[in-house]
Structure prediction request, 333 residues.
Amino acid sequence: MPYWGLFLGIFFLLIVLVIRKKEKLRRFSFALYVLAALSFAFQYPAYITVWGSFETKRLIVPLLQIIMFGMGTTMGLKDFKGVIEMPKGILIGLICQFTVMPLVGVGLAYSFALPSEIAAGIILIGSCPGGLASNVMAYLARANIALSISLTTVATLISPFLTPFLMQFLSGTLVPINTADMMISILKMVILPVVLGLFFNQLFKRQITFLLPILPKVSMAAILLIIVIITANGRDALLSVGILLILAAVIHNLAGYFIGYWSCKLLRLPEADCRTIAFEVGMQNGGLASGIAVEMGRISTLGLASVIFGPWMNISGSTLALWWKEKTDQSKS
Prediction:
């Protein structure tokens, strides 16, 4: 059927209209928007990859910078105070995040015998810090929001050093890695806009109050556009390894939740902290992985894992968060 992508996209949008009326299901709206956009991008990539003589993949880095700037505007000095107040949770979270996910990624990359650059993309996802979505899920799950924000902040700030090192060490045989170039790219894509957003928030906090409700929506729109562009560029590769890549992404993500949560349980952290670190370990910054893939000139292969990981991460994270929320509410009643 020549118009399946259009019909499927409309179908997902209609589901959004239905579930937005139900509070418990409303959190799945963004994932459905992603699926709707992916349906169109998968069938009509020519309309997305190039606009006239402009290659849309050049938009990915600026879009990521907008997302990170938005993250910076939501941050304040209180977020860094959390590092001092919760050192044990921060340390455990960072160790899990930058060991569990990269190593699980390596295991999956070699187990599924994927093409080298696509396999390296799985390791890249695992080597990136957590994203903003983990903070939202921590809020929904009645977890430790202060710990979540502090952990995301610290992981993001040290990612220019750890992510290139991990990629060189774990995937250097799969794809050429220039550690210095990757470090500079992450500084440009993440640290610079976050710092600018932080200063913007501190200097103009009262003047930009009206922007605060808008920025999350702008960030979500930017994430959606990044996923669509990568899907269109990597459509042919996805057709050949799609099922395996989906399976790898699901296992990767669930392993992060499981190991993150139970590691904290074994170390006797409070339940709220265990939930928080589960989200921080299991949910990675797919946008950063996409930006790195663009900077390396391998968006159609290295960037594919983030296309699968992003939508699935939102679906699984929302489901787990709502389950934990209901569990907490029932225990209080």
